[in-house]
Amino acid sequence: MAIQEIINIGTLPNDGEGDPLRVAFAKINNNFANLFYTYTNTSSAYTTGNTSGQVIFETAANTFTMGEFYIYSADVGQSQTIQLFAQLNTAGNAVKFTGHGSTFFGNALARYDMDVVNGNVRVLCDPLTPNILFHFIASQNMWAGNPIDGLDIGLDGYVSAVMTTETNIVITIEQP
């Protein structure tokens, strides 16, 4: 993976000390070429009842080597957050994770687990309440290997809120 290139913008506007436009845009292109190793996504899910193993996030294992998940779960007047850091084994059939950084407003609402089923890495929720829980998940999935064309890049929003151009063309990754 290439190193991020910083664009020199000079000290003052139009001082002539910064990178020329062609050099600056070459750095921009090189920086975006690195995106094929990272897929950033935000999504939301709901769980009902307190049945264990409810899937709140799923991604293809062939585009996952390791990842970070930030999960916000909420019920009326209560919420909790947690960070999960995960790694797929070399065979691609099991995932290990650690969770930390939990914060609570009110009671604990859920426990989390991860597994690999049918070629997908999944984040599972074990609600501790029979109420409907809302889960907001922000994730960054990183992988080693060949780049995969066409993955949507979503930086903010909810399900289906991926980055688009001003004419609503979905921005995806592609091989350089």
Task: Describe the protein in words.
- The protein has a domain at 45-142: Immunoglobulin-like (Sandwich), CATH 2.60.40.
- It starts with 20 loop residues before the first helix and ends in a 34-residue tail after the last strand.
- Helix content is 7%, strand content 43%.
- It is elongated.
- The strands form two sheets. Strands 1-8-3-4-5 form a five-stranded antiparallel beta sheet, with no helix packed on it. Strands 2-7-6 form a three-stranded antiparallel beta sheet, with no helix packed on it.
- By secondary structure, it is mainly β.
- It contains one helix and eight strands.
Detail the topology: elements first, then pairings.
Elements: H1 21-33, E1 38-47, E2 54-60, E3 66-75, E4 78-88, E5 95-105, E6 110-117, E7 120-127, E8 133-142
Strand percentage: 35-45%
- Determine the N-to-C terminus distance: 12 Å
Biggest sheet descriptor:
5 strands, antiparallel
Count the E strands: 8
Q: Residue share in helices?
A: under 10%
Shape: elongated
CATH architecture field of the domain at 45-142: Sandwich
Flag low-confidence runs: 154-161
| CATH topology descriptor of the domain at 45-142 | Immunoglobulin-like
Major sheet: order of its strands?
1-8-3-4-5
Q: State the fourth-level CATH superfamily of the domain at 45-142.
A: 4-oxalocrotonate tautomerase-like
Computed Rg: 20 Å
Give the overall pLDDT as a whole number. Answer: 81
Number of helices: 1
Query: H/E order of the elements?
Result: HEEEEEEEE
CATH class of the domain at 45-142: Mainly Beta
Helix-strand makeup class = mainly beta
